[in-house]
């Protein structure tokens, strides 16, 4: 037996031993993590192009910066999710670390999505009060900076929650993500007047799809196939669809 053949057999044996040492997380649907892994590649390319176009076309430092942050958080969220769900981790502590990162990235990504939309809607007037009528019929005077500030503070709170209490009830996670996602309602009039009909509708529709996915995650229903495509895969599919709708909206905003 040649030395190369011996090395190959040794490597295969080591891989087999590592696989056997992986923590058994129970039966998991075939598509668990695969959707987000594929989406990470797609959005990685599209987000890189989006950031480049924002830098070359928009002429706005704030829009370019927030677009870059959004792009990194989008791809980061999908990548962390794919790694958490797909890799056969070898210890429970490692799994819990990745679970914390997975949940924390959701909150960070939600608020990062506000960035380019808010930058386009409010421009450089970050600390100027902008009047408008919100969805509840009251007077809204938030500037873009305050919406982002509150959003990032809330996201930081969600990150702390997931880092130190990852076993929190599922309904609490759903509530936190829903509140983060629908904070934009306080600036709905300003967003609509600044961005126009098409981006606003895409943003609204994306929010609805995100919410439906969160409800599926919270209720663990419907659960089409435990072998192939379960409730968690529906949640991931809804996340990708909603992210795609918002991604198109941000492309429209950047190109406007």
Automatic annotation (TrEMBL):
<feature type="transmembrane region" description="Helical">
    <location>
        <begin position="35"/>
        <end position="55"/>
    </location>
</feature>
<keyword id="KW-0812">Transmembrane</keyword>
<feature type="binding site">
    <location>
        <position position="232"/>
    </location>
    <ligand>
        <name>Zn(2+)</name>
    </ligand>
</feature>
<feature type="transmembrane region" description="Helical">
    <location>
        <begin position="139"/>
        <end position="164"/>
    </location>
</feature>
<feature type="binding site">
    <location>
        <position position="236"/>
    </location>
    <ligand>
        <name>Zn(2+)</name>
    </ligand>
</feature>
<dbReference type="GO" id="GO:0016020">
    <property type="term" value="C:membrane"/>
</dbReference>
<feature type="transmembrane region" description="Helical">
    <location>
        <begin position="105"/>
        <end position="127"/>
    </location>
</feature>
<feature type="transmembrane region" description="Helical">
    <location>
        <begin position="61"/>
        <end position="84"/>
    </location>
</feature>
<dbReference type="Pfam" id="PF03006">
    <property type="entry name" value="HlyIII"/>
</dbReference>
<feature type="transmembrane region" description="Helical">
    <location>
        <begin position="198"/>
        <end position="217"/>
    </location>
</feature>
<feature type="transmembrane region" description="Helical">
    <location>
        <begin position="229"/>
        <end position="254"/>
    </location>
</feature>
<keyword id="KW-0862">Zinc</keyword>
<keyword id="KW-0472">Membrane</keyword>
<keyword id="KW-0479">Metal-binding</keyword>
<dbReference type="InterPro" id="IPR004254">
    <property type="entry name" value="AdipoR/HlyIII-related"/>
</dbReference>
<feature type="binding site">
    <location>
        <position position="85"/>
    </location>
    <ligand>
        <name>Zn(2+)</name>
    </ligand>
</feature>
<feature type="transmembrane region" description="Helical">
    <location>
        <begin position="171"/>
        <end position="192"/>
    </location>
</feature>
<dbReference type="GO" id="GO:0046872">
    <property type="term" value="F:metal ion binding"/>
</dbReference>
<keyword id="KW-1133">Transmembrane helix</keyword>
<protein>
    <submittedName>
        <fullName>Hly III family transporter</fullName>
    </submittedName>
</protein>
């Amino acid at each position: 037996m040649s030395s190369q053949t011996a090395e190959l057999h040794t490597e295969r044996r080591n891989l087999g031993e590592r696989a056997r040492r992986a923590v058994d997380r129970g039966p998991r649907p075939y598509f668990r993590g695969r959707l987000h892994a594929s989406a990470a590649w797609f959005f990685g390319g599209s987000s890189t192009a989006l950031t480049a176009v924002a830098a070359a076309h928009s002429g706005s430092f704030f829009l370019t910066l927030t677009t870059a942050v959004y792009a990194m958080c989008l791809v980061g969220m999908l990548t962390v999710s794919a790694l958490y769900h797909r890799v056969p981790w070898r210890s429970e502590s490692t799994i819990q670390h990745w679970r914390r990162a997975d949940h924390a990235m959701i909150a960070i990504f939600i608020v990062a999505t506000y960035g380019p939309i808010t930058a386009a809607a409010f421009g450089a007037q970050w600390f100027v009060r902008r009047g408008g009528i919100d969805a509840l019929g009251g007077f809204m005077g938030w500037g873009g900076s305050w919406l982002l500030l509150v959003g990032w503070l809330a996201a930081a709170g969600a990150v702390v929650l997931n880092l130190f209490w990852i076993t929190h009830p599922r309904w609490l996670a759903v509530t936190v993500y829903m509140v983060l996602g629908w904070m934009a309602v306080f600036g709905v009039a300003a967003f609509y007047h600044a961005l126009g009909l098409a981006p606003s509708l895409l943003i609204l529709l994306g929010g609805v799809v995100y919410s439906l996915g969160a409800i599926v995650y919270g209720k663990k229903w419907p659960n089409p196939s435990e072998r192939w495509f379960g409730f968690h895969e529906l949640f991931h599919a809804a996340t990708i669809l909603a992210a795609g709708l918002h991604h198109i909206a941000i492309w429209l905003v950047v190109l406007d």
